[in-house]
Amino acid sequence: MGLTESTVSLLASWGAGVLLPAVVTAVIAYLCGCFNGAVIVSKYILRDDVRGHGSGNAGLTNFYRTFGGPLTFVVILTDVLKAVVAVLVGVFLVGQLLPVDGAGAQAAAAALAKYWTGLFCLLGHMFPCMFQFKGGKGILSGGTIAIMIDWRVALVVWGCFLVLAVLTRYVSLGSSAAGAAFPIATGVVYQDVLLLVMGLFIGGLIVWKHRGNLQRLAAGTESKFHFHRS
Questions:
Q1: 131 Cβ contact partners less than 8 Å away, ≥ 6 residues apart
Q2: What span, in angstroms and rounded, lies between the C-alpha atoms of 89 and 104?
Q3: For residues 152 and 148, what is the distance between their CA atoms, to the nearest angstrom?
């Protein structure tokens, strides 16, 4: 378990040459993240922006509660595919633009690219420049990023989410737990300081975006999830 070469030593070997690939992959990943499924479907297909309803959040849960129907699957597909594309493009570009020799370096470079692009894709989802920086809370895209990173990280993250969301029917509680579990799973699986820091940012963003939900949970006013629309 863990990487045979640290990402810090890999970055040191790349030197200043890493700056351009880092910027390019970050921009691409952020723009991918900006394609918010809930906003695109509600605003341009249904002509009724989801951010004007319910919690005001541009996420899957609020979309389902507001509109329901088969277009919910379009929202899911959009938020999943954009995370997949962002991570795959990031890994490809790092492999093409930077020197990576040896299996250990390749594994470290791939992991670094996944976390880096995953972080910026999540930022795009949460703060999309094309939608007044008002996006979603990132649980679906974040969960997809976890799957793209490593099945062991995904197992912990999705396990925490599903157990709490199913048992309590509070999606926000499951989402917050998943965010908190992200850096823990990262640390256990990779045992790499830099990846742990980026895992903290990814998980921290998800928990921070759910801060209002956590306050309502503490006050006993948070809404439970139901498969039927009220």
A1: 34, 36, 39, 58
A2: 21
A3: 10
